[in-house]
Amino acid sequence: MDPVQFRIRYAEKKDLDQIVELVVRLKKLNEEFDPLYSVREDIQEVAREYISKSFDREEVFMLVAEDGNKIVGVIRVEIRSRLFYQPIFSGVITDLYVSPSYRVKGVGSALLDEAVKILRGKGISIVCAEFPPMNKIAVDFYQKRGFKPLLYTFFKEI
Amino acid sequence: MSSSKSEVDKWYEIALKAHRYYGGKIETIPKVPVEKLIYFAVWYTPGVAEPSRAISKNPDLSFELTSRWNTIAVVTDGTRVLGLGNIGPEASYPVMEGKALIFKFLGGVDAVPLPIRAKDADDFIETVKKLEPAFGGINLEDIESPKCFYILERLRKEMNIPVWHDDQQGTATATLAGLINALKIVGKKISDITISMIGAGASNIATYNLLVKYGAKPKNIILVDTKGILHAEREDLDKLMFENPWKYKIAIESNGELRKGGIKEAIVGTDVVIAASRPGPGIIKKEWVAMMNKDPIVFALANPVPEIWPWEAKEAGARVVATGRSDLPNQINNSLAFPSIFRGALDVRARTVTDEMAIAAAEALAKHAEEKGISEDYIIPTMEEFEVYVKTAVAVAEKAIEQGVARIKRSRSELEETASTIIRNVRLKYETLVKNGFIKDIVQL
Known about the structure:
The complex is a heterodimer of chains A (158) and B (445).
Chain A (H helix, E strand, L loop, with lengths): L6 E4 L5 H15 L12 H12 L5 E8 L2 E12 L7 E10 L8 H15 L5 E3 L6 H9 L14
Parallel strand pairs in A: 4-5
Antiparallel strand pairs in A: 1-2, 2-3, 3-4
Helix pairs in contact in A: 1-2
Chain B lengths: L4 H18 L17 H4 L5 H9 L4 H4 L5 E6 L12 H19 L2 E6 L5 H10 L6 E4 L6 H12 L4 E3 H21 L8 E4 L3 H13 L6 E5 L2 E2 L7 H7 L1 H9 L9 H5 L4 E4 L10 H5 L6 E4 L9 H6 L4 E4 L14 H10 L7 H18 L14 H16 L9 H24 L10
Parallel strand pairs in B: 1-2, 1-3, 3-4, 5-6, 5-8, 8-9, 9-10
Antiparallel strand pairs in B: 6-7
Helix pairs in contact in B: 5-15, 5-18, 6-7, 8-9, 8-16, 10-11, 15-17, 16-17, 17-18
């Protein structure tokens, strides 16, 4: 396979459309894992609002992988406070998605590494990731990089 | 020339009668002298303890002292039998037994039909692995896709005997053999051509992989499944990543131009179309063949009716046409490959059948046809050309030795001698049984 060129940078408002497209794909992928992840009909609008608001939130940052003018991957990180525990702050990866044709080429790792670097720079020493438990590829991705379970979210329909 | 409904019905009727009359198709008979009762002291107790002791010290001796060296299992879970779908293991037995018959008759391989009741892929895998001590090889058959990819991948990795899934590798090998000669006829090179592939089931996915291994460029291949052309930006790609990682991989690396659309869009402007999708005619239209590059090569492999009739493809300008049918020229037929691939693998006690061994088989098949003189209507040998089985077996065995997957080494002349003797003897024994009235002709029914 041909090597691909890409660079990692902070997301900018001009990237909005492309980021929304990737995030919608990610949410639609979650549909595969459980009916409770069925995306709502206005997913497009909701995702757009979610991302555009993220630009204005101090505790959130987003990085993109870019090949020329094309956004081929995105990572969104929220810094959350852990009320009862220390260390108090953790960086939570809420969304990580790489375009299919750019997979298995190190884009995901590069996004994660850069996010970790930024978190460390802010003095944060825990990084977490949230995703459906059935997403085996995410499980493998994070496990391979030393992540372990920290919190279970159980559910039942009532 | 089309097979009318009544013609097929006639075969169904005869087949049911014949299967009942003969009570199946194969049996086991002794190959050692048992002239007197005392001979059993050699073949059974007490004598047999000694070979057992020897094998216990060195399990590989089971390939010398028992019939393991020439015995394989034809294993299925009955989940995708012919075009009949998931009809269960018992119902697949006639098909497995038919396969065993061909293995013996064309390759001299003793094959045991073994339909198993497995609850899922992992259960199937564990069961087959437990059979390893009894067999010199495993031929998988009629397992639904994509489960079959997972099963083959794991069993090839985890077993120490050849594991072959004929619906994947057999078809891929025969297709490659035909394509090698078709390309010679039109004067094109595998590394330069564009290929459209219609259908993304077991055989076309395996064919894709083998063609790439042989030198076709992934970017120059366009695959179409039931949802249209596969490309890296297709909506359902994330879903594919989980459901069918084999197809997902192809979606990402093939179709460099990100072509989109259906069968028509896939075919236009390509040099070769390989269709293994669903029975035609009319799946591939004449007008689309007319829009291919100069000297189109059309492989329409669906059975019982090809995706496009050969004469239609020819009228549209196709230079070489192959189908899956024995009553049409250029039959792409697994039976050309699997008997000799196992003959070759067993003769050197191979631990596996590598892709390179499959390519060696395809090249041997192609070479045989080339030596006899290839033409638009003869790119691949027919099942009647018995000598091709020996040649192919030798090519496979030599490749196994070269790649270090053979348990024993043999010279080319030894390999030729072994394979031709075994295959010839099956015929002679069979003729003897017929001559003596033990096997009655089907017309007497």
